[in-house]
Amino acid sequence: MESGRVVEFLESKNILLTGVTGFLAKVLLEKIMRSQPNVKKLYLVLRAENATAATQRLRDEVFSKELFRIVRERWGTENFNTFLNEKVIAVVGDVSSNNLGINDSNLREEMWREIDFIINSAATTRFDERYDVALGTNTFGAVNVINFATRCVKVDMLLHVSTAYVCGEREGLVPEKSFYMGETLKGTTRLNIYAEKKLVEENLKQLNAQNATDKTITSTLRDLGMKRAKLHGWPNTYSFTKAMGEMVLGEYRENMSLIIIRPPGISSTYKEPFPGWIEGLRTMDTKVIGYGKGQLKCFLGGSNTVLDMIPTDMVVNTILIGMVAHANQTQSIQIVYHVGSSLRNPLTLSNIHKFTKCCFHTNPLINKNGKPIKVNRVQVLEQHG
Predict the structure, then answer these.
(1) Any idea which residues carry the catalytic annotation?
(2) Would you tell me the crossing angle of helices 214-231 and 193-209 to the nearest 10 degrees?
(3) Membrane-spanning regions, if any (predicted)?
(4) 269-313 pLDDT tens trace
């Protein structure tokens, strides 16, 4: 698809984006602004005490980042600030609450009246997150988003960012298939999402009655999430609650078109707006940095094990192309897209070792004494059956 179609598509559109302080959403936001400065309005939902604090948080945690350097240089400081003032609406809210936690009734009515497209990128991505937190954001956050979307009179579609890990641990090609309500990966026990919510509430009530410490509550609810996930066939709380989020979207979407994007591990930018931008340590980063510091001596896995990774700008492009390709449908649709690399361009552990060794031999990290850190090849401990 030609990039011109994306640019044309975005012109004069009102777009709602959740999870805007997250890594992927930032790159998506930058792409929209850089591609089409004539977008009409960008409604960006984030947690804050009030609108002033939300606006300041956006400037500090989003627009001040190096990621937006190209846009700032291209437009100039004055035009960049004018865009933010006129077209970016900082929406005080929280997807884990009804009406996305938007208490400003005038703003809420405006959004229901004006929004053309909704992109839900809000999520908690910690694999062993507290079960109440993960359910609130990843599962019932999706309920709140779809309920809000169905009240938007102009909305054309909802695009939801999920994860490839909802498919669980399986071999071979995984079809781009939607989950139905109550489906489990084990196929033996039927899943009741509202019973899961009630279970969490009962556990939390019991812990509070026992005057449990915050540490005990957190530990207990983390263990509960992992236990429930494995009971139904998922490896962790994150993938389990994201799968349930997909289920409720399909169940409650009514006549709304729904696109679900499932990326695997997301890495730094490949090309846009420039190569190599990343925020924080992600996926393999902690191990790569540990190797560069000389701390990682061995790694458990197979040399030919494939790690499915995808640059974040490729995910962003898929989101935009998916929106353009399925806009203005005469009938509502529900489509799933996997956005991975393991089939066409597999990245193995042996490649990771080769690339990191080359990188840190050429550009070694410096220790606290100001000397380069020497690295050796990591020993892969393969399991043989």
Answers:
(1) 238, 242
(2) 150
(3) none
(4) 999 999 999 998 777 778 888 888 988 888 777 888 888 999 999
